[in-house]
Design a protein that fits this description.
32% strand, single chain, globular, alpha/beta, three-stranded mixed sheet
């Protein structure tokens, strides 16, 4: 069984653990650098990106997670997507810069503007997983404002990319872990 880490300093890491189990993987809740040696891939969960950055620095994990991402698969959702982006606006902030995208934080609005939407994935996603719409939970979600060459869009919402991949990296601006649909997590497992 594949072991996948979920950064567990803040955010919805428990929901990702359950989603990984549904997808057939063993979650490892990463709170210490030594745990990075036990996993094949890492999920950066949703939560609050500035808080995660502070905790990564406080726990002295930032550089270790960055190093992990230089050689291993990483999947970021919502705040995790922000942490993976090369560019962050509204406001600008530090990130791991793993994926050639620029994101705007909280671009769908405030907490009260959060929503659940049905998203039609592109054929490339469906061909590699299964057909059907994705239930996308957007909670103060970022919008991907720019993508560079080599980034593949797998699903969009209102014309904006919401699920992308670049090589071993997967990014969702929504929360697939908050639904019973394990296809996005299964796609990540295929990168391990």
């Amino acid at each position: 069984m594949k072991k996948v880490g979920v950064l567990s300093l803040q955010g919805d890491f428990a929901a990702h653990g359950a989603a990984l189990e549904r997808a057939g993987a063993q979650p490892v809740f990463v709170r210490e650098r030594e745990q990075l040696n036990q996993i094949e891939g890492l999920i950066l969960p949703g939560g609050e990106s500035t808080t995660m950055l502070k905790l990564l620095r406080y726990e002295d994990l930032f550089d270790d997670v960055a190093e992990f991402g230089r050689t291993k698969p990483v999947f970021g959702t919502c705040a995790g997507a922000i942490l993976m982006a090369k560019g962050v606006t509204n406001p600008a902030q530090e990130s791991f810069g793993l994926v050639d995208i620029e994101v705007e934080r909280n671009a769908y609005g405030r907490q009260t503007d959060s929503r659940i939407a049905q998203v039609r994935p592109f054929p490339d996603f469906e061909n590699r997983t299964a057909p059907g719409e994705l239930k996308a939970v957007f909670i103060r979600a970022p919008i991907i404002r720019r993508i560079e060459d080599g980034v593949r869009v797998l699903a969009s919402y209102q014309g904006d990319p919401v699920l992308i991949e670049q090589g071993r990296f997967l990014v969702a601006t929504f929360h697939p872990e908050l639904t019973d649909d394990a296809r996005v997590h299964s796609l990540f497992l295929s990168k391990l």
